[in-house]
Amino acid sequence: MKSDKIENFAKASLGTEGDELGPVEKSVVDSISSQEVIVANINESFHDELTFGQRMADKVAEFGGSWRFIIIFVSIMVFWVVLNTVWLTQEDAFDPYPFILLNLVLSTLAAVQAPIIMMSQNRQTSKDRLAFSKSYEVNLKSELEIMRLNQKVDEIHKLLIKESKK
Questions:
Q1: Which run of H or of E encompasses 90?
Q2: Element (H or E) spanning 37, and its range?
Q3: Where does the chain cross the membrane (predicted)?
Q4: Global pTM?
């Protein structure tokens, strides 16, 4: 009975036409009826479901977007070019100018690293959507609870006015 009253209140407050609320709204109404908390730590629940490959992709993306990676990467490139330029004066340089092997390594690195970073970004987008959805539920529940409290305060106010007139 109490659930029906809350559901009717929610329908009226949300301006819902028809008999049914949406799944998110229904979930919020149920949480109000059962007086349960709907706040959840998205980070824990999201990261617990990641596979080993997804965790590795996140680590690669994290390292690939760091200053540490840039410094190591530039150092290796400078070392490669200097080493091959010095060896260029001799005839046994393993990658003489125009550094074709270095170009191949850089292209391969970019070809592998880009999709891994994209996978990590897609997962972050999914996590953000989940967080926004949870935030919407919490905000909706808060608004409905505040509306209910306002309604109760108005009822108490009316009762007090009636009592004062007696």
A1: none
A2: none
A3: 65-87, 99-119
A4: 0.64
Token pair for residue 71? 């410094």
- Percent pLDDT > 70 in the chain is 87
Q: What CA dihedral angle connects 4, 9, 15 and 18, to 10 degrees?
A: 20
| Cα angle for residues 152, 154, 156 (degrees, 5° grid) | 70
Cα-Cα end-to-end distance for the chain: 33
pLDDT tens-digit map of 9-33: 776 767 666 567 778 787 887 787 7
- Residue 46 CA to residue 132 CA, distance in Å, equals 13
Instruction: Output phi, psi for 65, to 5 deg.
Output: -105, 25
CA 62 from centroid of its chain's CA atoms: 16
- Pairwise CA distance, residues 97 & 12, whole Å: 76
Distance (Å, whole) CA 104 – CA 150: 68
Q: Which pair of structure tokens corresponds to residue 70? A: 């840039």
Element (H, E) at 136: helix 100-165
Which pair of tokens denotes residue 37?
């908390």
- Summarize pLDDT for 28-65 with one digit per residue, the tens: 877 877 778 777 778 787 888 889 988 898 899 899 88
Amino acid identity, position 86: V
